[in-house]
Design a protein that fits this description.
The complex is a heterodimer of chains A (about 150) and B (about 70).
Chain A lengths: L5 H14 L4 E7 L16 H12 L5 E7 L4 H6 L7 E5 L5 E5 L6 H14 L6 H8 L5 E7 L3
Parallel strand pairs in A: 1-2
Antiparallel strand pairs in A: 1-3, 3-4
Chain B lengths: L7 E7 L4 H6 L7 E4 L3 E4 L4 H12 L13
Classes of the chains: A alpha+beta (about 150), B alpha+beta (about 70).
């Protein structure tokens, strides 16, 4: 069953067709659902649904790829991306920068994800020149954590 | 900013799914932004204010707002 509504599919496909420039890789960390309950083992209620959603999203353009990693069995990859919780999605574009989503990119966060994919594809966002100048002048690492909810 | 600058990482965290992290950062309203674990604000802010908060977090003099020239 498709997670993205039929009426939205054509819109998203067209948006990607018009706006995507370079390739974008979606790196997704998950813990797959197990039929067996193991006490103490971490579970992730939304992980499978988020993976299905991402599979649909990358299906809208050849320029998008999805790489799925298991947080528990691929520790080295998790360390490389500094991921310690799931679901975790890293949007990697043509430049060095990346945006990470922790939790399901649902509700109001879904358009944010689509916009970030397009921005990552261009390596450019709608920041003002003044902002670019100010941030460009800072060499220190800047870690932004943005807490959101779907509604 | 994270997309354009390699020294910026942006984590977008769904507060309901990660209650322990939300509690640690005292999230009571969204959106809440925490910069370098030191400067924070809740609610949407204009871009220059966001930049000023980042400058504060890294210990840089905030860029003065352009003043209209006085004749």
């Amino acid at each position: 069953m498709a997670l993205i509504a039929e009426r939205d599919r054509a819109t998203i496909a067209q948006m990607f067709d018009e706006n995507l420039v370079g390739p974008v890789k979606l790196v997704y960390f998950t813990i797959p659902k197990s039929l067996l309950y193991v006490p103490g083992r971490a579970t992730c209620e939304t992980c499978d649904d988020v993976q299905h959603l991402l599979e649909e999203v990358v299906g809208f353009s050849d320029k998008l790829t999805l790489e799925v990693h298991n947080l528990e069995s691929e520790r080295e990859e998790a360390q490389r991306y500094r991921v310690d919780r799931v679901p975790a999605l890293i949007v990697e574009g043509s430049t060095e920068g990346a945006v990470r989503f922790y939790g399901a990119p649902a509700g109001y966060e879904f358009p944010t994800l689509l916009q970030d994919i397009q921005d990552a594809s261009k390596g450019r966002t709608a920041l003002s020149e003044a902002t670019r100048e100010a941030i460009g002048a800072i060499a220190d690492p800047i870690h932004l954590q943005v807490f959101v909810t779907p509604t | 900013m994270a997309i354009e600058f390699s020294n910026v990482t942006a984590d977008i965290i769904e507060a309901n799914e990660f209650p322990e992290i939300s509690r640690r950062y005292g999230v009571s309203g969204v959106p809440k932004v925490v910069i370098n674990d030191s400067v924070e604000f809740t609610g949407a802010v204009p871009e220059p204010a966001f930049v000023a908060a980042i400058q504060q977090a890294v210990g840089v003099e905030p860029t003065p707002e352009d003043e209209p020239t006085q004749e």
